[in-house]
Amino acid sequence: MSVYHIMSAQKTNLVLIGMAGAGKSTVGPLLARILSYGFVDVDELIEADQQQSLQELVDQHGAAWFRLLEERILLGLDLQRHVIATGGSAVYGAAGMKHLQQSGLVVYLDVPLAVLEARVGDVATRGLAREEGQSFAQLFADRQPLYLSHADIRIECGGKSLAEICAAIIQAGAGLLGGIP
Length: 181
Description:
With 181 residues, the protein is α/β, with parallel strands linked by helices. The chain has one domain (3-173): 3-Layer(aba) Sandwich (Rossmann fold), CATH 3.40.50. Helix content is 51%, strand content 13%. It has 9 helices and 5 strands, in the order H-E-H-E-H-H-H-E-H-E-H-H-E-H. The protein has helices spanning 3-8, 24-35, 42-50, 54-61, 63-75, 94-103, 113-120, 136-150, 162-173, and strands spanning 13-17, 38-41, 82-85, 104-110, 153-156. Strands 2-3-1-4-5 form a 5-stranded parallel beta sheet, with helices on both faces. Helix 3 packs across helix 5. The longest helix is centred in the C-terminal third of the chain and has 15 residues, at 136-150. The chain is globular, with a radius of gyration of 16 Å. The two termini are 26 Å apart. Mean pLDDT is 87; it is low at 1-8.
């Protein structure tokens, strides 16, 4: 194997996973600035690709269709030295998650349910890929095992500032990810 293949196989991305309201789109840009990485928000990529809001897409096509679209977008990513904020439902797509894990360290931003509920507010307008009638608490319970199974690192975010969360991610990932100082 050449040096090029060894370097290209190195994990240089940080992939943030977690529920809506966990702070992926807030922590991500700050973390990217600290590390001098690029930043990509997958929800924004989906909206740009479809020219519609997440809520419109879920309302028109349903959660299952949305998850397939999200996975297609994830499979199309080819990035190095980026922080990637995934949508909360990214963990349903095994192929998409495997693709992200090949070039990145997956970080689960674990936030208590009560905090998430307060941050998210009205779930009917948030663009959540959930089944009709499924409560936010039920969605949380459904996704929690998936987040844990896909994560390389779990960061408990309850009561931490943005700076503390970024520092915890950097400290936890320093020995596992190529390129983090």
